[in-house]
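tmp note - PCI domain-containing protein
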Amino acid sequence: MIPIVELFLKKRFTTDMPTERLPSPQLVNSSPLDLEQLAANYKGPQLSISLRVYFIDYYRIRKGATRLYRNTANVPMYMAAFNRLDALRAKAGAASQEGQANGPTAGQSGLPQCDSQNFESTRRAMDDLFQQQIQMGHIQDAVKLYGRGMREYCTSTKHVIQMLLNWIEVTIHLSQWHRVEPLMTQVERAINEAVESESVAVSSTTRVGRYAMNASQTASKNMKELIETSKAKIAAVIALYGLNSKNFKAVAEKCLQIDLDYFNYPSLLCAKDIAIFGTFCALATFERSELKTKVLASTLFRKFLESEPKLVRDHLLLNMYLSPHVKEIYHLIRRRAIVQYFTPYAVADISHMAEVFRVSVQEMEDELVELIENDDINARIDSYNKIIRAKNRDQRAATYTE
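out:
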C-alpha cells in the first residue's frame, strides 16, 4: 500500500480511476478471497453480514461461506442466505433443502436457558441476554434492552463504556446512523471521566503501603489499557460515521489517530478496514504535503499500512461499509491526481495527459473543463491545439486579498 501513496506523490498516478461519466466498477474475481482470514477478522453479526455480502456477490466462495454459516446461531441470517442460494439454484433445479433442515439450533435453545439462569446481578443478566440476542440475530430485541434502562445498572466506568460501545454496534448494524452521534458523545465523555479518575488514582498511590501500591498499580495499568482501547474503538466508530456521511477527510484524519497496538474490534471493524479507509480517503482529500507528513511519516498508521500490503478493487467492492463510496472516492483521487500533475506546468499537452491517464483526448478535455469550472485548476484550454495554459496570477490582487 505504501508504494501507492508514494506513486501518487511523484505524479505518476495513472490507474484507470472511474469518473462520473464512466460506469460503476464491476467484480472481476481477479484474486481469491480467504474465508478463514475473514472469520479471524470479524465475529458476531459483523461476520454474518460480511458473509452475506460475499455469499451473494462472489460466486466462487459460496460453498465455503455456506460452511461458515452452519456454525452460526443467527437463524434469520442463516435462512436468508439459504433462501438466496435456492433462488440462485432454481434454474438448475437443485434447492438447498438440506441446508435449511440442518440449520443452527443452538441459538433457539440458548435464549430460554439464558433467561432462566440465576445471574449474579441484573446488569450481568441483561448483558448476557444482550449477547445471546446478538448471536441469534435479534438485533431489535437487543436494542430494546438498552431502552429498559440498562445504564442504571452500570456501577463502574468500565461497564458504562462497554455498554455504550455495544449500543453503538447494534445501532450501526440496524443502520440507524442518526442515533450514533449522541452515543459517540456519551462514550467520549465516559472516557474523559475514566482519564480523570485514573489520574486521581495515580496521584494517591504515593500515600499507601507497598502491597496496596502494587494492587493500585495493577488497577491503574488495567484502567489505562481500557482507556486506550476505548479511544481506538470510538475513533474507528467516528471514522465509520464520517464514511457514511461522506466526510472523507474526517475519515482519514480519524484513521490516522488509531493505534494498532490497542485496536481490537472484530465485532465491527478489523485492522484491514482501517488501512483501506484511511489510505483511500487520504488520497482523495489530502494535499501532497499532508500525504507525506500525515500518512507516510505516521508511525501509528504505518502499522496499518504494513498489515494490508495491497489494495484490490474487488476487495473494496465487497467491503460492506466502503463499497457504496468506492466510485466517488476513486473519482476524487483521479481529480486530485490531475490537479497535481498540472500544477508545476505553465503549458501542458492534453494529448500527452490523455495518454498518461488512460483516456481519450476528448474525455481528458472534458475532465479538465470540469476542473476549471470547479476552480480546481486556474487555466484556459486551447481546444484547437489541444493544450492547456495556466492563467497568470494577478500578484497585486492576491496580495490585497491576503
